[in-house]
């Protein structure tokens, strides 16, 4: 398997291959694609960050005490 890495913008659901790689893949090739979205500045990176920024409030909720956590 031959792998390349490049950055591009998805436009209308299409990923454009940079000119310097087009010749390598020809007119029609079967490829495996992995898309990793770049995180915008200030955008929460995962569910934990989202929950820390916007906690879910549940009436009557009380967190476990240290003793309750380590009870067996």
Describe the protein.
The protein has 72 residues and is mainly alpha-helical. It has one domain (10-70). It has 3 helices and 2 strands, in the order ββααα. The protein has helices at 19-25, 47-53, 66-70; strands at 10-11, 14-15. Strands 1-2 form a two-stranded antiparallel ribbon. A hairpin with a 2-residue loop joins strand 1 (10-11) and strand 2. It is elongated. It starts with 9 loop residues before the first strand and ends with a helix. The model has no long low-confidence stretch (mean pLDDT 85).
Describe the strand arrangement of the main beta sheet, using strand numbers.
1-2
Number of structural units classed as domains: 1
Strand element count: 2
| SSE sequence, one letter per element | EEHHH
Biggest sheet details: 2 strands, antiparallel
How large is the count of helical segments?
3
């Amino acid at each position: 398997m031959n792998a390349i890495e490049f950055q591009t913008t998805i436009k209308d659901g299409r990923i454009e291959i940079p000119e310097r790689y087009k010749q390598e893949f020809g007119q029609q090739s079967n490829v495996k694609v992995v898309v990793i979205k770049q995180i915008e500045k200030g955008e929460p990176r995962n569910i934990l960050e989202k929950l820390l920024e916007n906690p879910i409030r549940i009436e009557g909720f009380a967190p476990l005490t240290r003793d309750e956590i380590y009870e067996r």
